[in-house]
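User: Hey, my collaborator sent me this sequence without any context and asked if I could get a structure. I don't really work with proteins. Can you help?
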Amino acid sequence: MITASAATDGGVDLLRGQIGKGKTYCFLGSSGVGKSSLINRLLTAGGLRTGEIGSYSGRGKHVTTAREMFFLPDGGIVIDNPGVREVGMTDTDAGIKESFEGISMLAGDCRFADCTHTQEPGCAVLAALKSGAIDPDRYANYLGLRKEAEHYGMTVSERRNRDRSFGKFMKTAKKDLKRYKGNLMD
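Assistant: No problem. I've predicted the 3D structure and written it out in structure-token form, which is a compact way to encode the shape of the chain:
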């Protein structure tokens, strides 16, 4: 694992050294975590649009809306992706229950079977959060993953549209790759 920061440039040279010529790397992560900013550091000349850190939240802002491929000066290829939702998740219910076992166990003690653990009276999860038994960041991660899981409960039509968009991206990427390889031969 390589830890790198676009804000401080820490680890960027180490990351750059791991990117092989002619190899393709995909940058994945949540919206606003700095994928595009990090790719800008690798490109050295920048070029990707990025947002400022929000003054209220202290977090990055979602800017990337489509996949884009970039060719690094040393010959590596990187793909910038929008937030994690573009990647997809499988078997989310089991994964969330397993990853957040303590919260899942508490959920069984809630007053309502369909408790969302966000506002209902008699929610055991909210009571544990209020008492400090659950870390607020862990709780936020739990809610975020549940929200993302709901997003992936999309219809067949919505999946087709997403797949069609990805197919267009791949067609363009293959064309760009051929052009790039042609330039390497010159």
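In plain terms: The mean pLDDT is 80. You can pass these tokens on to your collaborator as they are.
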